[in-house]
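Hey,

The postdoc asked me to send both predictions to you directly instead of through the lab channel. I've kept everything plain text so nothing gets mangled by the mail client. Protein one:
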Amino acid sequence: MSRHDNNRYRDRSPVTLWAPDAGHPDAIGLRSIGFWLYMMSDAMIFAALFAAHGVYTHAYGTSDITASQVIDPVEGLLPTLFLFTSVLMYGLASVALKNDDRAGVVRWMGASLGLGVLFLLVEVWEFAGLVGEGAVPQASAFLSDFWTIVWVHGGHVFVGLIWMAAMLIQISREGFTETVVGRFINLRIFWFFQAVIWVCVYTYVYLMGAS
């Protein structure tokens, strides 16, 4: 894309960035294609982890700790509520972006960030309790897989929160440039994907594991 095209897109409002002109492709769509490919590879990683969980669910080894003793679906409800509400807040930030409302985007993204932090804090508290009970990864293949699958997801959430904090700074300083909006949309894809993965974690690991 030429410097002239970059300047032309920089002066556009967020709504216009989604409407291609004659002879010019959708600027936001082009920026999202590569990120979708990355998300496909991420989905394959989680698919492998879920497959491993299916194999190791009853692999307790020499440990007396079973899945039903470690996993409590009720405890999993609170982080679920925090993460889903965080996704809702990010959706409202997207609506504010469409309306060219910078203050609204910052407000809703800040709420989304705060709820995401609460999600991680609850997860840390839950696993600190497991350590106190001796349910550590090296105790059995099941516990090793359980820790891995939940904390790989938690690592993704942590990265998303760092990204969100950086986006808040960029939006506050630069406004809705093509680059900033493109990053905002990619982060939305990433953040919503974490909610989808958590549905799988809660259903497959917490609900089925507790039974």
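Protein two:
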Amino acid sequence: MLSDKMKNKFHQPHDAWLSLKHILTLVRLESKSSYQIGFCQMDSSTNDVIRDCPPFFKVYKDGRVERYFVTQPVPAGLDRTAGVQTKDVVISPAVKARIFMPQSTTPGQKLPLLVHYHGGGFSIGSAFDTVTYKVVAPLVKQANIVVVSIDYRLAPEHPLPIAHDDSWVGLQWVASHANGQGPEPWLNDNADPSRIFLAGESAGANIAHFVAVLAGATKLVGLKIRGMLLVHPYFGTREPNDNELDKYVCPTSTEFDNDPIVNPEADPKLKEMACERVIVLVAEEDGFRNRGEAYYETLTKSGWRGKVEFFETKGEGHCFHVVIDNHNTGVLKNKMVDFINKDI
């Protein structure tokens, strides 16, 4: 069981990043004197560590980065149990992606395409890991869609805005298939460029928003973005923030929470967002719940001409759906499927 000391730490804002696997890691690390959830600490236990940011990563003097959460990859291929097939592609030397499709497709039928960005505090996670698979595979089967999950480079080795830049490259690559002449046959043959969705959870929701705004501001050609799903989104706010982790993953930003890269309220291009509908999904016990609500309110008042919905799951925490399967998980997934399948 968690000690009272550890339970108290879960009231910190960055408890929102935690999954069950993170919690197990934190229990093992409880005895560390330098420990503080979600905040970078100088580790007094060794001279080799120059920065410790649990539950994400630690940085050594020689430049090595060690992550607390080790990605468990899922091999690409046919998964008859999940009812999906997957394929990995290289978009650029730095950017890769995994394509998910239903196990069975009808020749000549074009399906809606969802571009997905994984979460993980901009510093952990992958398009190829078990967490992304658990999130994406059910959507593919239930909504009968194609998904491209973008694998962007991670901080601190690649500080922000590199993750956002990589994610934009990924969306541009998707757009290159709009005329059916792109480099990937699965998209040429099966994806409908007039029915595009963007989605992400946590930090990935932040990225999905970013590329949607950039698509509108630059008038990206070839894709019609019908909707965007922001699941337990992580955004900056204008409230005071002493979180050193944010500063470490984005060292070029003098005011992280006032940077348009992470805070939509500070972005003058918000009203140009290339998206017809948005759903903001939050969890009642999530430390970032209020940031999702603030995004909803900001978008409503921004002059953006689309429609935005707000959905709250009671009694659950941040990204609960990636670690547990319960009634609320099913309700959340069904809400996402209904949003995708509405009016298309």
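Summary for protein two, as requested: The first strand starts at residue 49 and ends at 53.

Thanks,
C.
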